[in-house]
Specification:
By secondary structure, the protein is mainly alpha-helical. It contains twelve helices and six strands. Helix 5 runs antiparallel to helix 6. It starts with 10 loop residues before the first strand and ends with a helix. Pfam families: BTAD.
Length: about 260
């Protein structure tokens, strides 16, 4: 017999930064670690997951009777902790979080803000949507999880965060709000140092405009060390050329060169 759905109290899933479930404004106290692990796994797999994959990824278990019982206990505890019998559904063998729970997370707000920015009719609407998207960002996705199963979702949400920062920085740049452009573009680069090299070039030119050529060249040197130590690569020739021009005192920002 299917359990009836139970209306849930106000829930918010915080995943970007210090991951927590907020229940009526207070952090949820988990009855068991396995229930919390199950929640975050399902959040990272919004299209659902088969029990065998879940058991192997979360707990390194084969899908045998003992492991299946452990899963049932964790599932029961998760539903009880969230106050929803329908918190997790089984659909054709895959277990999925209820859409309401996915919508109640900060990642949902991040992506909703990006979609609104794409549909914005004015620059002001676009900026407002991007700021709403970034208002929920407080760090990496599920930073407490150290497992392969989270990496796909982590990269996906990181890319969204970086896209929001880059888009906002371009709005500032177009308005010649150079310090704000540096701030937002710097956060994009910090979030993902392997962002396209053209963004590193743009940050170098912005830094030269706002903080001087030494700051711009220092960023180049840090980027070059990062590529050497972490990737085993070197900057592109045009990045090297840009660094040399900045060292010589050239101002190469096309926006700054435009008449007011």
């Amino acid at each position: 017999m299917t359990e009836p759905a139970v209306s849930s109290p106000t829930l918010h899933l915080r995943t970007l930064g210090d991951a927590a479930v907020m229940l009526r404004g207070q952090p949820l106290v988990w009855p068991a670690r396995s229930a919390e692990e199950l929640l975050w796994y399902l959040h990272a797999h919004p299209d659902g997951a088969y029990r065998a994959d879940l058991l192997a990824d979360l707990w390194g278990l084969d899908d045998d009777p003992a492991a299946a019982n452990r899963f049932r206990v964790a599932l029961h505890r998760l539903r009880a902790a969230l106050g929803r019998a329908d918190a997790v559904a089984e659909v054709r063998g895959r277990y999925l979080l209820h859409p309401d729970l996915l919508a109640a997370s900060d990642t949902a707000a991040l992506h909703a803000g990006l979609r609104a920015a794409d549909l914005a009719r004015t620059e002001a609407e676009r900026e407002d949507a991007l700021r709403r998207a970034l208002a929920c960002v407080d760090g990496e996705y599920l930073p407490q999880v150290r497992a392969d199963w989270v990496e796909g979702a982590r990269a996906y949400h990181r890319a969204a965060r970086v896209r929001a920062y880059v888009s906002l920085s371009m709005l500032h740049c177009a308005r010649r709000e150079c310090p704000l452009a540096v701030q937002t573009l710097g956060r994009a680069v910090q979030s993902d140092p392997l962002i396209g090299e053209d963004h590193h070039q743009r940050l170098m030119t912005c830094l030269a405009q706002t903080r001087g050529r030494f700051e711009a060249v220092e960023h180049y040197r840090r980027y070059r060390r990062y590529l050497r130590d972490e990737v085993g690569d070197t900057p592109m020739p045009d990045t090297v050329e840009l660094a040399e021009r900045l060292k010589a005192g050239d101002l190469v920002c096309r926006e700054a060169e435009q008449p007011g």
